[in-house]
Amino acid sequence: MIRRIHAENYGVYGTRKIWHELHRQGVEVARCTVERLMRAAALRGLLRDRSARTTRPEAETDRPRDLVKRDLLTRRANMC
What we know:
The protein is mostly helical. The protein has a domain at 2-40. Helices cover 34% and strands 0% of the residues. It starts with a helix and ends in a 40-residue tail after the last helix. The relative contact order is 0.14.
C-alpha cells in the first residue's frame, strides 16, 4: 500500500503524508512503522524545506583602499 500511495502521488509524498493517507483509508499504523517500511523499500519524499541559494558570500576580504584620500577625523563636536 505504501508503494502504491507513493507512486500515485508522483513520488512526492513522504512519511507523514503517506501515514495520513493510510489513516484516511482506514489503515491503523504507527508513523514510525511507515518510516521503517519506507526506509526498507528505499522510498523518500521530495524535500522542499530549503530554497536554493542564489548568492554565495565570498570569504572575508580586506576593505578597499581609500582612493579619494578622505579626511574623516572630527576636530570639534558635530563637525567633520
